[in-house]
Amino acid sequence: MMTTRFTLDAREIRQQFPFFQPHPEMRNLIYLDNAATTQKPYAVIEAVSNFWAYHNANVHRGGHGVGAKASELYEAARGRVARFINARETAEIVFTRGTTESINLVASSWGETFVQPGDELIVTEMEHHANLLPWMRLAEKRGARLVVWHITDSGTLELDQLRKLLSERTRLVAVSHISNVLGVINPVAEICRMAHEAGALCLVDAAQSIAHMPVDVQAIDCDFLAFSGHKAYGPTGIGVLYAKRALLEEMPPYHVGGGMVQTVRWDRLRWAEPPAKFEAGTPPIGEAVGLHAALDFIDSIGREAIAAYEHELTEYALARLQEVPGLRLYGPREGRTGIFAFTLEDIHPHDIATVLDSRDIAVRAGLHCAHPLSERLGGPTARASLAIYNDTDHIDALIDALHYTRKVFGYAG
Ligand code: PLP
User: Fold this and answer.
1) Cβ contacts of residue 224 below 8 Å, gap of 6+?
2) Contact in structure between 89 and 238 (CB atoms under 8 Å)
3) Tell me: the pLDDT tens digits for 258-301?
4) Distance 340 CA to ligand 1 centre (A)
5) pLDDT, position 24
6) In which element (H, E) is residue 146 found?
7) Residue of the nearest CA to atom 4 in ligand 1?
8) How confident is the model at residue 75 (pLDDT cuts 50, 70, 90)?
9) What value does the mean pLDDT take over residues 385-404?
10) Which CATH code for domain 10-40+303-408?
11) Domain 46-299 is of which CATH architecture?
């Protein structure tokens, strides 16, 4: 077995999560489904609960103190997000329900306004449906062409390939920062640079990167970036769309209703300034407060430290997974994170997940909302994915349980 000195003590970090504490309703679960959603620290649960208990009011409406406080907390969360991703200004941060809604917003608002028949939209073969279906539907609606940037056999994207696909007709390149299946980290800054050189915009799906490595929108120079709170130790029901101010200025609203207009007359509508223009109706206020606490939690550990620790753990897992006979791991060996999609002999991935669950290990199995990619890989896979509270004991337990799974299905030693 490998002996590595690890830079963080995950056991200590687990102390900050009720999910990992003894409780009559809790199994002592090894949670390896973090790409689907992460567990929540006490700090987030308390921030949300505190908001509902003592500060609940609608935002940007009430003529009363509690409404002013709720608005202050909501806008403070926006400021926190802006600092977290290094946006130039808070107006570039639109709160949504999650990555899916953020990308749908761009496809509807920007796409249906600016994409013309004959234009091209480049998507990669490894996209989650959230960053694929909005573009497929937009292409269909607008008579545009969806251009697929295929992956290599080792599960990476080649920039030379992108160079060949870009043309004066390209309007947008949509790419995930980290694939939710292959775990590969894509060179998004380089991709955005190439898109810009061709006169196109670049959208980055940061759902799988936001909690695991530094994400700096100015360094990446993306035009749009989307992520979800719940994959970053925060609540469900809250997500972020970052967009450059100039784009938000020229994009029409996505939803219309309360809170997003300056003037409504029978003969004239004047939208509010961004980001309010894109936040019709009562927003997810308590959830934004929870997201604020989640980003504070992440930064209390430090994103460089998280990336370094998860890299060490990934290296450990990659070495140990190789010990399991008949295990096929997808994605590259280098330049990847702790998302491990695999098959084991010819055992159905759902059966693998069921046996692992019987050993108190939670993993996901299936097509991972990435059907074209899964088809390319040959079908469904099981997927174990890491977060900051996982450690080598968890990997060791997974490896033991995979050996056990082989035995259950009659594979020898
Ligand atoms: N993009 C990627 C890469 C994802 O992994 C996911 C969720 O798994 C999403 C988008 C969608 O996120 P949500 O369901 O929070 O909108």
Assistant:
1) 102, 106, 110, 201, 202, 203, 204, 241, 242, 243, 244, 247
2) no
3) 999 999 999 999 999 999 999 999 999 999 999 999 999 999 99
4) 16
5) 87
6) strand 145-149
7) 207
8) very high
9) 98
10) 3.90.1150.10
11) 3-Layer(aba) Sandwich (3.40)
Q: Give me the residue label for tokens 């050996």.
A: 403
- pLDDT for residue 339: 98
192 as an active site residue: the answer is no
Which atom of ligand 1 is closest in space to residue 99's alpha carbon? 16
Q: Is 183 in the pocket of ligand 1 (CB under 6 A)?
A: no
Place of tokens 């390939």: 161
Whether cis (ω within 30° of 0) applies to the bond prior to 24 is: no
Q: Taking the alpha carbons of 288, 130, 356, 324 in that order, is the dihedral positive or negative?
A: negative
Query: How far apart, in whole angstroms, are the C-alpha atoms of residue 346 and residue 378?
Result: 12
Distance of alpha carbon 325 from alpha carbon 79, whole angstroms: 50
Q: Which atom of ligand 1 is nearest to the CA of 228?
A: 15
For residues 348-372, give the mean pLDDT: 97
d(CA 296, CA 286): 16
Q: Which helix (H) or strand (E) holds 270?
A: strand 268-271
Q: Which residues pair with 145 in a beta bridge?
A: 120
Element (H, E) at 411: none
Residues 341 and 331: their CA atoms lie apart, in Å, by: 8
- Averaged pLDDT, 166-176: 98
Confidence of residue 26 (pLDDT cuts 50, 70, 90): confident
**Which atom of ligand 1 is the closest one to the Cα of 97?**
16
The number of helices, as runs of H, and strands, as runs of E, in the chain is 15, 15
For CATH 3.90.1150.10, the residue range(s) in the chain are 10-40+303-408
- Which SS3 state, helix, strand or coil, does residue 106 take? helix
Q: List where CATH 3.40.640.10 sits in the chain.
A: 46-299
pLDDT tens across 208-253, in order?
999 999 999 999 999 999 999 999 999 999 999 999 999 999 999 9
Quote the ligand 1 centre to 99 CA distance (angstroms).
6
| pTM recorded for the entire structure | 0.97
Residue 62: band (very low, low, confident or very high) from pLDDT cuts 50, 70, 90: confident
**CB-neighbour burial class of residue 123 (10 A; exposed 0-12, middle 13-18, buried 19+):** buried
Q: Which of 192, 202, 222, 369 is catalytic?
A: 369
Q: Is the CB of 98 under 6 A from ligand 1?
A: yes
